[in-house]
């Protein structure tokens, strides 16, 4: 539906699940980090994942992308109907899953520009001028010739992760605290690029993307419209609802209040 000003409104409910996580229990080094997690994300949908430090948010994203060491004890993960639980990280990325890490490593000896070129070549869509266009969008032109994330500031790392996602163009986009450590000027750029990655200019039913965004303080919600929020506590997704209502509840009652509310 078109509204005044040409902006499209989401009026349709999308039924096709892009990500389906069923009864997922995961351990790392014999420590259980996820317990019986259930989460469905439809194509076109954007979910924000809230939760206190150490509740398992990052572990969930790392398990979905397939980081070695995150051992699935039970349950499964489906991507566009395909069981990916046993696939390697590169197989999952090739299928169209992408992640911007909370704390990515620096890659000594690999220039950011070369990584972007490789990602675009793999997709058969390499154009030199695209690299500059993407970097300009994220105010990172000065970082292109540097080793990936090496000596980058906190904000530059966050933007460099997004830049790599622009080059990869994944269908399912996971962002681990894209708003933390980003200053007020750059958070605008970050929001704009996330909206572009998630095709937020289209109606939900026309989008081919879906997103899962972890946010601690919820700043990113001022720039990116999320359809649903979920709260993770002690390794389990305990509830879901309107993201702003959930944030307000957390602000007023704390996460302990959320746990009590369930009882
Ligand atoms: N690779 C790992 N080795 C040991 N413990 C881990 C590892 N990854 C996560 N954990 C533990 O799992 C818990 C959840 O961590 P994490 O998923 O990073 O939480 P969040 O992102 O919600 O802050 C924490 O207690 C953390 O120390
Ligand atoms: Mg985390």
Describe the structure in your own words.
This protein is α/β, with parallel strands linked by helices and 263 residues long. It has a domain at 14-104 and 170-262: P-loop containing nucleotide triphosphate hydrolases (Rossmann fold, 3-Layer(aba) Sandwich), CATH 3.40.50.300. The protein contains seven helices and twelve strands. Strands 6-9-10-3-11-12 form a six-stranded mixed β-sheet, sandwiched between helices. Strands 2-1-4-5 form a four-stranded antiparallel β-sheet, with helices on one face. It has a two-stranded antiparallel sheet with strand order 7-8. Strand 1 and strand 2 form a beta hairpin. Helix 5 packs parallel to helix 6. It is globular and about 55 Å long. The N and C termini lie far apart (40 Å). The model is unreliable at 1-9 (pLDDT under 50). Residues 28-29, 31, 33, 51, 53-59, 69 line the site of adenosine-5'-diphosphate (ADP).
Number of helices: 7
Rg, Cα atoms, Å: 18 Å
Q: What is the H/E order?
A: EEEHEEHEEHHEHEHEEEH
Instruction: Give the cofactors and ligands.
Output: adenosine-5'-diphosphate, magnesium ion
Q: Low-confidence segments, ≥5 residues, pLDDT <50?
A: 1-9
What's the pLDDT, averaged over the residues? 92
Fraction of residues in H or I helices: 25-40%
General shape: globular
Number of beta-strand segments: 12
| CATH superfamily grouping of one domain | P-loop containing nucleotide triphosphate hydrolases
Termini separation:
40 Å
Strand content: 25-35%
| The top level CATH class name of one domain | Alpha Beta
Reported for the largest beta sheet, the result is: 6 strands, mixed
Structural class: alpha/beta
Strand order of the largest sheet: 6-9-10-3-11-12
């Amino acid at each position: 539906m078109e509204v005044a000003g040409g902006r499209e409104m989401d009026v349709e409910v999308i039924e096709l699940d892009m990500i389906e996580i069923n009864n997922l229990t995961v351990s790392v080094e014999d420590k259980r980090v996820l317990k019986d997690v259930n989460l469905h994300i439809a194509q076109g949908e954007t979910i924000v994942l809230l939760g206190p430090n150490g509740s398992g948010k990052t572990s969930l994203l790392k398990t979905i992308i397939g980081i070695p060491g995150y051992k699935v004890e039970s349950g499964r993960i489906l991507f566009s109907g395909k069981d990916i639980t046993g696939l390697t990280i590169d197989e999952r990325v090739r299928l169209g899953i992408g992640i911007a890490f909370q704390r990515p490593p620096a890659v000594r000896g690999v220039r950011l520009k070369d990584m972007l070129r490789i990602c675009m070549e793999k997709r058969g869509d390499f154009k030199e001028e695209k690299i500059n266009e993407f970097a300009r969008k994220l105010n990172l032109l000065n970082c292109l010739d540097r080793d990936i994330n090496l000596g980058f500031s906190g904000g530059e790392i966050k933007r460099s992760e997004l830049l790599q996602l622009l080059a990869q163009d994944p269908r399912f986009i996971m962002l681990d605290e894209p708003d933390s450590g980003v200053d007020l000027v750059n958070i605008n750029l970050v929001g704009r690029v996330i909206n572009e990655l998630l095709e937020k200019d289209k109606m939900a039913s026309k989008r081919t993307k879906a997103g899962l965004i972890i946010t601690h303080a919820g700043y990113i919600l001022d720039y990116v419209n999320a359809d649903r929020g979920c709260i993770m506590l002690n390794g389990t997704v305990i509830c879901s609802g309107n993201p702003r209502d959930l944030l307000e509840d957390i602000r007023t009652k704390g996460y302990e209040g959320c746990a009590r509310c369930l009882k």
